[in-house]
Amino acid sequence: MTTQLLGNNGISLTLAQNDIQNMPADFAIQLQLKGSSAISFAPLGETTLVNLASNWNDPSFKGLFLPTERSISEKGFTAQWKVLNYNRDFPQHWTNNAYDLKTSDFGVTLVDMADHYQKNERSAKYGILIIVFVFLSFFLNEIITKQRVHPFQYILVGFALLIFYLLLLSFSEHVGFNRAYLISALSVIAMVLAYSRSFLKTWLSSLTLTGILSLVFLFIFILLQLESFALLVGSIGLFLILGLTMFFTRKINWYE
Fold first, then answer.
1. Which of 5, 8, 85, 166 stands 20 to 30 A from 207 (CA)?
2. Strand, helix or coil at 12?
């Protein structure tokens, strides 16, 4: 007896004719999957029932059918599907490869919501905010203390902030994202503090500016740890920063 494969991938097997004639056929198969990020099912039976349970807490349900019941928590997820034959895109009987079974697949993908590469990408998207905040701090320091900062010095500080992301990516591949963020942030903060002492007159000015830089790094780190509330917290934070900037610069006579 030859085996007719169903579709272009997956597992197919043929049951003996005397086992399935005029009676239901019960069979079981045990699979050990390693390194799989997703699993899909083809609803070949007249009624297809699927029950899944996993300790992964970031599932993404995919395919033509969504679970009839599902539960997601920090400990994992459970999901149940029930698919009837008249809901799919192929009949119960056909010959050769008349239908594509993949059109009715359903299942789940195990999503990694925040690995270190994704966090690096997200942190880079906030890069313009860090540069703007730091340059704004230096500019306001010029206005308030009358200490001039040369454009070339702005450029060097900007390069230091750009190096932060290169350090972050490099270290995160070896020590994890959180430790890499701490190492990179402290390195850049120390560099900016030491360099700012060469053109700012007082330690207070240098400490104030690097303190603002530290708060910006902390604010971005908190946003990176959030998933569902990152946009809300970020919007509120930017609103408060803008309000504080308006408050501290309200008495400056910009025409002078």
1. 166
2. coil
Predicted confidence band of residue 12 (pLDDT cuts 50, 70, 90): low
Distance CA 195, CA 200 (A): 9
255 falls within a domain:
no
Q: What is the DSSP string of 102-127?
A: GGG-EEEEE--TT-HHHHHHHHHHTH
Strands 76-84 and 47-54: antiparallel
Helix (H, G, I), strand (E, B), or coil: what is residue 116? helix
Asked, for residue 67, whether it belongs to a domain, the answer is yes
Q: Which residues contact 46 (CB under 8 A, 6 or more apart)?
A: 84, 85, 92
Instruction: Tell me the C-alpha distance between 61 and 213, whole Å.
Output: 41
Per-residue CA distances from 11 to 5, 19, 31, 64 (Å): 8, 20, 11, 20
- Comparison of pLDDT for 252 and 159, the residue scoring more: 159
Query: Do 91 and 147 reside in the same domain of the chain?
Result: no
Residues 182-188: what's their mean pLDDT? Answer: 89
pTM of the predicted model as reported, rounded to 2 decimal places:
0.55
Question: 79 pLDDT exceeds 70?
Answer: yes
Boundary of a domain, candidates 59, 88, 110: 110
pLDDT (average), residues 213-225: 83
Q: Are residues 41 and 159 in the same domain?
A: no
The answer to whether residue 5 sits within a structural domain is: no
Q: Are residues 221 and 132 in the same domain?
A: yes
Mean pLDDT of the chain: 79
Rg of the chain (C-alpha set)? 29
Task: Examine the domain organization and report whether 104 and 123 are in the same domain.
Answer: no
Structural element, H or E, at residue 115: none
Q: What is the pLDDT of residues 15-32, one digit of tens each?
A: 666 555 566 666 677 777
